[in-house]
Every structure is written in structure tokens, then in C-alpha cells.
Amino acid sequence: MKIMTISSVTLFTICLLISFCDAKVLKDFCVADYTAPQHAGGYSCKSPEKVTVDDFVYSGLATPGNTSNLIKASFPNAFSYQFPGVNGLGVTLSRGDLAPGGIIPVHSHPGVTEIILVVKGSITAGFVSTANNVYIKTLEEGDIFAVPQGLIHFGVNTGPSQALVFASFSDENPGVQVTDLALFGNNFPTDLVSKTTFLDPAVIKKLKAVFGGSG
Ligand SMILES: *[C@@H]1O[C@H](CO)[C@@H](O)[C@H](O)[C@H]1NC(C)=O
């Protein structure tokens, strides 16, 4: 009886593995077809005979972004809605240009892990764990930094020159939740923000003016 149970479990597992292997073999990629309707799972796949190598090449991260803004930084992305070849692959990249003093505001990517590579300059970066421990390090050229899945993280260009970083993500279209925008960039009522964060209402009003919020 016990042997029967084990062998049926084994058989089930093998079937499962075979069906996974089959799926991989049958479908190498799903290049996004921006002209077809989107469905719950994302983009429709471009018909394979219409796919070319150019679907897998994206040049949008080749040039520096404009850092004349509040955060003195710019983050062009190569997500699935810009870069069709990455659709369905579960990975992508962003570029970050940070002027001296430029910031990566406190934010998180729900369910997504990130790795940051410092190509030029130096960045003080960190994340906060769910145990509420803060992990901060000043990263130099060539350093890479792992941000575990979904944790809030941040960065500042603490060096004297322009910094260039690239960030990779475990999703081709990572969501982003910027803490300042979640609290001050919408119509979240000031009294409720104040009650639920213990921040002074005057400070909240001031930040709502900065981040485009109301109420
Ligand atoms: C950068 O952005 C600022 C503010 O929007 C703008 O005034 C400036 O012309 C832009 N610079 C370039 C090179 O696009």
C-alpha cells in the first residue's frame, strides 16, 4: 500500500516535469505583440515567423536620462511595454543616472528581486528587512548590490560626480511603489495620513504640495 502511494506520487511528479519540459521546448519566447489585445496574463505573443532579432535588442538605455528634476536622477526602463523581446522572460533592466546628490527615493517592487550594478561613481544604497533591520553600504564602481524581493530600498549619489547604475529585476514589468507618492502624491486625506503615520499635518500638507497630492 505504501509502495503504491510512493509510486503514484512519483509518476505524478514525472508527468508534471514532462509537461513543464514540453512547454519549454514548444515555446522559447513570447515577443509582445503591441497591436493585439492584451489579456489578463499580459501581452499576446507575436507570431514566431514575424519575430526578428531586433525584437530582442533595445537601445533605450544607451543614453543618459535628464537629471534636471526634484530627485536629480532619471531611470529609463526596458520593461515589457517598451522592449517586446523581454515579455514573458521574467527579467529586465533599468538604467539610473544620478547627478551629485541625486536620489533613488524610498520604494519597493512587490514580489520582485533586484540587483544593482554601479558602473560609474558611487552610491550609498540600502534596504530595510521585514525584521526592520537596515542594511546600508556605499557602493563603488563595479560593486553589485542585491535587494531581496519586495523590500523597501533607496539610494543616494554620495560621490562628487555623476553616477551611472543599472538595475536588473526578476520580472519583465516590475511594479513600483514609491513611499512618498503613496503617502503624498494622491488624495489620501491629510488627517488619515497623519493618524496612520504619526506625521504632523503641516508636514504632510507641505509634502503633498511637492508630490502633487491633494486633500
Ligand atoms: C531637462 O529637463 C529640464 C526640466 O524639464 C529641461 O528644462 C531641460 O531642457 C532638459 N534638458 C534636456 C537636455 O533635455
Quick take:
With 215 residues, this protein is of the alpha+beta class. The protein contains four helices and twelve strands, in the order αββββββββββββααα.
Textual characterization of the structure:
With 215 residues, the chain is α+β, with helices and mostly antiparallel strands. It has two domains: 31-174, Jelly Rolls (Sandwich), CATH 2.60.120.10; 176-215, no CATH class. The protein has four helices and twelve strands. It has helices spanning 2-26, 179-184, 190-197, 201-211; strands spanning 32-33, 44-45, 73-74, 92-98, 103-108, 114-120, 123-128, 134-139, 144-147, 152-156, 163-169, 177-178. The strands form three sheets. Strands 3-4-11-6-9 form a five-stranded antiparallel β-sheet, with no helix packed on it. The radius of gyration is 22 Å and the shape is globular. The protein starts with a helix and ends with a helix. Residues 66, 68 line the site of 2-acetamido-2-deoxy-beta-D-glucopyranose (NAG).
CATH architecture classification of the largest domain: Sandwich
Strand-residue proportion = 25-35%
Low-pLDDT segments: none
Q: Give the termini distance in whole angstroms.
A: 67 Å
By CATH reckoning, the class of the largest domain would read Mainly Beta
Query: What is the third-level CATH name, the topology of the largest domain?
Result: Jelly Rolls
Query: Please, what is the CATH homologous superfamily of the largest domain?
Result: Jelly Rolls
Rough outline: globular
Q: Structural class given helices, strands, pairing?
A: alpha+beta
- N-to-C series of helices and strands: HEEEEEEEEEEEEHHH
Radius of gyration: 22 Å
- Determine the number of helices (DSSP H or I, runs of at least 4 residues): 4
Count up the domains.
2
> Total strand count, please?
12
Please bin the fraction of helical residues. Answer: 10-25%
Query: Are any ligands bound, and if so which?
Result: 2-acetamido-2-deoxy-beta-D-glucopyranose
For the largest sheet, list the strands in their spatial order: 3-4-11-6-9
